[in-house]
Design goal:
- There is one protein chain.
- β5, α12 and β6 form a beta-alpha-beta unit.
- The chain has three domains: 75 residues, no CATH class; 82 residues, no CATH class; 136 residues, Trna Endonuclease, Chain: A, domain 1.
- The radius of gyration is 24 Å and the shape is elongated.
- The protein contains 13 helices and six strands.
- By secondary structure, it is α/β, with parallel strands linked by helices.
- It has a six-stranded mixed β-sheet with strand order 1-6-5-4-3-2, with helices on both faces.
- The longest helix has 22 residues.
């Protein structure tokens, strides 16, 4: 199967090369544009059958333009994967999704969802210029707790309306019903342990909403869900949960647990004061119930790169 897929990719890459290098004489677009692709489409269809419509030819041309060395193509990705990836215009974004898709064996549907949720831009905004370049080159690497965090987490797959208040447990219930998609949003390495993990201390009973084990970092990850804005006392409660796991649940070969409080809103200053002096790995992050607007995230990422560029020149 890999051999057949690789052969198809190389053929499509070769057609793209022929269009750019010979038909367009190296120009990005031929002077006669659409008519050129229509003519080539008709010729190839007559010779080889379906699969060579003008839309496909546009992607073949972009495949060659994006990967001028055919050895950089991945035989682990199908043509359908490449069609989705090539819908992006930024070379860094294209490189990231190719690498990430290869590493995590995303289906085309999963890839489309991650692109729609602006995963590359969300991860980029939590780093610097070198971090963005590393993302494009290597994909997302998980080496320390901070690498797990996405802000915001996008939970559009829950299909919850944006309301000021939800019924008790509705958010958690929807996540449990859509655990496969939630794990995709969390990122690689997460294994689900249980919901409503019971914690009994001094005659009092607590429950951590969601508990996972991270197979790369070798540690428990505790998630507490908040329907509204994250409050300072939520941080204190999560610190209690993390300390309990550290002393009562973790084995000798486990790394210290990580706590994430996930809410609809957060105030950066309040969170800064709430976490000051805490030695445990605690994070506060937002979630949103709709797909982000591409133009907003792209503008913020472009500004990040522009600011870094100015600093490099000074």
């Amino acid at each position: 199967m890999h051999t057949v897929n690789n052969g198809m990719l190389l053929m499509y890459w070769g057609i793209g090369k022929h269009i750019v290098e010979f038909e367009q004489e190296g120009a990005q677009r031929a002077q006669y544009g659409k008519s050129l692709l229509a003519t080539i489409s008709k010729d190839l269809t007559q010779r080889y059958g379906s699969g060579f419509n003008r839309n496909n030819l546009q992607y073949m041309r972009k495949l060659y333009s994006s990967f001028e060395n055919c050895t950089t193509l991945s035989c682990k990705l199908t043509w359908s994967h490449y069609v989705e990836i090539l819908k992006a215009d930024d070379p860094l974004e294209i490189a990231f999704y190719m690498k990430q898709c290869e590493q995590e064996a995303w289906s085309v549907r999963q890839l489309k969802r991650q692109m729609d949720s602006m995963l590359f831009q969300r991860l980029s905004l939590s780093t610097d210029k070198q971090g963005v370049l590393q993302l494009a080159k290597e994909g997302q690497t998980i080496e320390e707790p901070q690498d797990l965090l996405r802000d915001p987490y996008v939970l559009e797959f829950l299909h919850l309306p944006e309301l000021p208040k939800y019924k008790e447990g509705e958010l958690e219930k929807k996540i449990l019903e859509n655990m496969k998609m939630f794990l995709l949003e969390l990122g690689k390495g997460f294994a689900f342990v249980r919901e409503q993990y019971p914690i009994h201390l001094a005659g009092r009973h607590f429950h951590c909403d969601l508990v996972f084990y991270h197979c790369i970092l070798k540690c428990y990850v505790l998630i507490d869900l908040k329907r509204n804005e994250i409050q300072h006392e939520d941080i204190g409660q999560m610190n209690l949960y993390v300390n309990y796991f550290k002393h009562e649940v973790c084995q000798s070969d486990d790394n210290p647990p990580i706590g994430i409080v996930l809410g609809a809103k957060k105030d950066e200053v309040v969170m800064e004061y709430a976490m000051e002096g805490i030695t445990n790995q605690l994070f506060a992050a937002r979630y949103q119930l709709y797909l982000p607007k591409r133009e907003d995230f792209q503008a913020r990422m472009d500004q990040l790169l522009a600011d870094e560029e100015k600093e490099d020149q000074q």
